[in-house]
Design brief:
31% of the residues lie in helices and 33% in strands. With 157 residues, it is of the alpha+beta class. The protein has a domain of 102 residues: Aminopeptidase (3-Layer(aba) Sandwich). 25% of the residues are buried. The C terminus is likely disordered.
Length: 157
């Protein structure tokens, strides 16, 4: 498993992954139509100078992505893996590697309350639950990483 920069050619695979019915059920993330997805990724993700996004690859194949961005003064983390990569520890390794480069703390993440695997992944990396938030009528667990694992308590923002 490796992380690398996202390339424009990756967007089609990421679009297909985001439309997987089981992934949508687990994430309760609203899928975007192709044109909206491509515009969002080109402008708001890849075109965001304060964002940090990495492709997750397994044996040279694109498995998903991990990203961080500023949202209303808070640094947020998100990740997405294609279904065939679930349950193999790839998400945990990818986010852990990403966190070695993404130093901003506090770092927030949220997951649909029913997506216990995602919540466990984040908690296993040192995130702690803070509260719940509602997106599109669905409850999400909000988590925060205050400092790097084994860190000094000094955050970078």
């Amino acid at each position: 498993m490796r992380l690398r920069d996202v390339e424009p050619a990756d967007l089609e695979v990421l679009f297909v992954q985001q439309h997987d019915p089981e992934a949508l059920r687990r994430s309760r993330f609203p899928p975007r139509e192709r044109d909206v997805f491509m515009a969002h990724w080109t402008t708001n993700v890849l075109g965001n100078p304060t964002g940090f996004v990495q492709a997750v690859t397994v044996d040279g194949e694109l498995a998903g992505n991990v990203l961080a961005w500023w949202d209303e003064g808070c640094r947020s983390l998100g990740y997405w893996l294609g279904r065939r990569y679930w349950g193999r520890g790839i998400g945990s390794r990818a986010v852990a590697l990403f966190l070695e480069e993404e130093k901003a703390r506090p770092l927030y993440a949220d997951s649909f309350v029913g997506n216990t695997a995602s919540v466990r992944l984040l908690e296993g990396l040192g995130f702690r639950r803070t509260d719940t938030v509602w997106y599109g009528g669905f409850e999400h667990v909000r988590l925060v990483l205050d400092e790097p694992r084994g860190g000094s308590g000094v955050g970078v923002s």
